[in-house]
Design goal:
With 228 residues, the chain is mostly helical. The chain has two domains: 145 residues, no CATH class; 82 residues, no CATH class. The protein contains eleven helices and four strands; from the N terminus they run ααααααααββαββαα. Strands 1-2 form a two-stranded antiparallel ribbon. Strands 3-4 form a two-stranded antiparallel sheet. A hairpin with a 5-residue loop joins strand 3 and strand 4. It is globular, with a radius of gyration of 20 Å. The termini are far apart.
Length: 228
């Protein structure tokens, strides 16, 4: 470590991973307003934040699978915290959002734009809030991974995209929030995927069911359902 530098803490690294999960790879730079904002929150320079994000990129298996490499100077603690986060998607995303809310001086509900009017009371309320926070985190992570672009049509209007699960939410609890179990997809194709009318193979090829193939003569189906 260079003279004058301070060691990163666990909390700072968790906040950095939180941000890393919400940014496309091409936006991990010091001039990104979100990078600048985090730097101000934790008292570090935007350059140091950006450098840490690129270090995390070198540990990210989803980028490795695409042949993308980040910096190779990640520290031992970087790897420990990354593995802690990456192997515990059920708890660490929520912990990171609670931590971020403290630094932002906001409630976690405010931070995640959760409407409190119709929430239940007591323990159920806390559980509902946690679920919604985690769902918002998952969506941010998936849209970042796909650069806010539908994996089938190329549509890049984020308001029309859904963070879908490859393995259904109800059947794979451990990977509910794992970005590698998610795809960015438009609402129509998400419904088709959910109903088994289209599937995505492990090598990311789209297979269309015979039920839909029979609709190929339909003008709407040709233009909307079958751009693939």
């Amino acid at each position: 470590m260079k003279k004058g530098q301070k060691l990163w803490t666990r909390n700072e690294l968790i906040l950095a991973i939180n941000l890393y999960c919400k940014l496309p790879f091409g936006r991990l730079h010091r001039s990104n307003p979100q990078v600048v904002h985090l730097a101000g929150l934790i008292g570090r320079t935007p350059s140091s934040i950006a450098y840490k994000l690129v270090n995390f990129a070198s540990l990210d298996p989803s980028l490795q699978a695409r042949g993308i490499k980040g910096a190779s100077n990640s520290s031992k603690l970087d790897k420990v915290i990354w593995n802690e986060f990456y192997n515990n998607w059920e708890e660490l995303p929520y912990e990171s959002e609670k931590l971020l809310s403290k630094f932002e001086n906001k409630t976690i509900e405010e931070l995640n734009n959760i409407d409190l009017d119709n929430l239940p009371k007591g323990k159920t309320r806390e559980q509902v809030i946690e679920v919604r926070v985690n769902q918002a985190f998952f969506r941010s992570s998936i849209l970042a991974s796909y650069n806010n672009t539908c994996c089938i049509t190329g549509l890049n209007q984020s308001e029309l995209l859904i963070a879908g699960h490859i393995k259904p939410w109800s059947t794979d609890k451990k990977n509910r929030l794992n970005p590698r179990n998610g795809i960015a997809i438009n609402a129509l194709h998400d419904k088709a995927f959910e109903r088994g009318l289209i599937t995505i193979t492990p090598n990311y090829k789209i297979k269309v069911s015979n039920t839909l193939l029979k609709q190929k003569k339909n003008r709407f189906s040709r233009k909307i359902l079958f751009p693939i």
